[in-house]
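Weekly sync, protein design subgroup
Attendees: M.S., D.O., the rotation student, P.L. (late)

Item 1: inverse folding check
M.S. brought a backbone from last month's batch and wanted to see whether the design step gives back something sensible before we order anything. D.O. pointed out we never logged the input encoding, so this time it goes straight into the notes. C-alpha coordinates as presented (112 positions):
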Protein backbone atom coordinates (compact mmCIF):
# COMPACT_ATOMS: atom_id res chain seq x y z
CA UNK A 1 0.00 0.00 0.00
CA UNK A 2 2.83 2.40 0.86
CA UNK A 3 4.78 1.66 -2.34
CA UNK A 4 1.68 2.11 -4.45
CA UNK A 5 1.78 5.85 -3.76
CA UNK A 6 5.07 6.13 -5.63
CA UNK A 7 4.06 4.07 -8.65
CA UNK A 8 0.86 5.98 -9.39
CA UNK A 9 2.88 8.84 -10.83
CA UNK A 10 4.28 6.44 -13.45
CA UNK A 11 0.86 5.65 -14.90
CA UNK A 12 0.11 7.51 -18.11
CA UNK A 13 -2.60 10.12 -17.93
CA UNK A 14 -5.07 10.68 -20.75
CA UNK A 15 -4.38 13.58 -23.09
CA UNK A 16 -6.32 16.74 -22.40
CA UNK A 17 -8.25 18.27 -25.27
CA UNK A 18 -8.35 22.01 -25.62
CA UNK A 19 -11.81 23.12 -26.61
CA UNK A 20 -11.70 26.59 -28.13
CA UNK A 21 -14.27 29.10 -26.97
CA UNK A 22 -16.43 30.96 -29.48
CA UNK A 23 -14.30 34.12 -29.11
CA UNK A 24 -11.17 32.16 -29.96
CA UNK A 25 -12.89 30.59 -32.97
CA UNK A 26 -14.00 34.02 -34.23
CA UNK A 27 -10.48 35.41 -33.75
CA UNK A 28 -8.93 32.45 -35.60
CA UNK A 29 -11.40 32.79 -38.45
CA UNK A 30 -10.73 36.54 -38.69
CA UNK A 31 -6.97 36.00 -38.78
CA UNK A 32 -7.21 33.28 -41.41
CA UNK A 33 -9.72 35.11 -43.58
CA UNK A 34 -7.96 38.47 -43.67
CA UNK A 35 -6.52 38.92 -47.15
CA UNK A 36 -3.86 41.49 -46.26
CA UNK A 37 -1.84 39.09 -44.05
CA UNK A 38 -0.93 35.70 -45.43
CA UNK A 39 0.37 32.73 -43.50
CA UNK A 40 3.71 33.08 -45.27
CA UNK A 41 4.03 36.70 -44.12
CA UNK A 42 3.20 35.75 -40.54
CA UNK A 43 5.70 32.87 -40.65
CA UNK A 44 8.39 35.12 -42.20
CA UNK A 45 7.84 37.81 -39.56
CA UNK A 46 7.94 35.22 -36.79
CA UNK A 47 11.12 33.72 -38.22
CA UNK A 48 12.75 37.14 -38.47
CA UNK A 49 11.84 38.01 -34.89
CA UNK A 50 13.09 34.68 -33.57
CA UNK A 51 16.33 35.03 -35.55
CA UNK A 52 16.91 38.56 -34.25
CA UNK A 53 16.23 37.33 -30.72
CA UNK A 54 18.70 34.51 -31.25
CA UNK A 55 21.39 36.93 -32.46
CA UNK A 56 20.77 39.23 -29.49
CA UNK A 57 21.04 36.22 -27.19
CA UNK A 58 24.37 35.25 -28.79
CA UNK A 59 25.79 38.76 -28.45
CA UNK A 60 24.67 39.09 -24.82
CA UNK A 61 26.04 35.64 -24.03
CA UNK A 62 29.33 36.51 -25.70
CA UNK A 63 29.63 39.73 -23.74
CA UNK A 64 28.88 37.97 -20.47
CA UNK A 65 31.42 35.27 -21.32
CA UNK A 66 34.05 37.89 -22.17
CA UNK A 67 33.39 39.75 -18.92
CA UNK A 68 33.62 36.59 -16.81
CA UNK A 69 36.80 35.52 -18.61
CA UNK A 70 38.41 38.90 -17.95
CA UNK A 71 37.28 38.76 -14.32
CA UNK A 72 38.83 35.31 -13.78
CA UNK A 73 42.05 36.40 -15.54
CA UNK A 74 42.30 39.56 -13.43
CA UNK A 75 41.70 37.70 -10.14
CA UNK A 76 44.33 35.12 -11.15
CA UNK A 77 46.82 37.92 -11.73
CA UNK A 78 46.02 39.39 -8.31
CA UNK A 79 46.53 36.00 -6.69
CA UNK A 80 49.84 35.50 -8.46
CA UNK A 81 51.03 38.98 -7.45
CA UNK A 82 50.06 38.32 -3.82
CA UNK A 83 51.93 35.01 -3.83
CA UNK A 84 55.05 36.62 -5.34
CA UNK A 85 54.97 39.42 -2.74
CA UNK A 86 54.53 36.95 0.10
CA UNK A 87 57.40 34.80 -1.14
CA UNK A 88 59.62 37.88 -1.56
CA UNK A 89 58.97 38.78 2.09
CA UNK A 90 59.81 35.26 3.23
CA UNK A 91 62.94 35.23 1.07
CA UNK A 92 64.09 38.54 2.59
CA UNK A 93 63.59 37.16 6.11
CA UNK A 94 65.51 33.99 5.28
CA UNK A 95 68.36 35.96 3.67
CA UNK A 96 68.58 38.15 6.76
CA UNK A 97 68.67 35.11 9.03
CA UNK A 98 71.29 33.47 6.80
CA UNK A 99 73.51 36.57 6.86
CA UNK A 100 73.22 36.76 10.66
CA UNK A 101 74.13 33.08 10.89
CA UNK A 102 77.16 33.64 8.63
CA UNK A 103 78.29 36.54 10.83
CA UNK A 104 77.87 34.45 13.95
CA UNK A 105 79.80 31.60 12.36
CA UNK A 106 82.58 33.94 11.26
CA UNK A 107 82.86 35.34 14.81
CA UNK A 108 82.98 31.83 16.21
CA UNK A 109 85.75 30.86 13.79
CA UNK A 110 87.74 33.98 14.75
CA UNK A 111 87.61 32.98 18.42
CA UNK A 112 88.80 29.52 17.66
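Designed sequence read out in the meeting:
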Amino acid sequence: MFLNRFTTSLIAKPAMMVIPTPKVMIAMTTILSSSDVSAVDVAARTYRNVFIGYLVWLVVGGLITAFLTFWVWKSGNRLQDALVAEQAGRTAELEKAASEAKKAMAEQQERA
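Discussion: Helices lie at 4-7, 22-33, 39-111. The chain is about 80% helix and 0% strand.
Action: P.L. to compare against the previous round before Friday.
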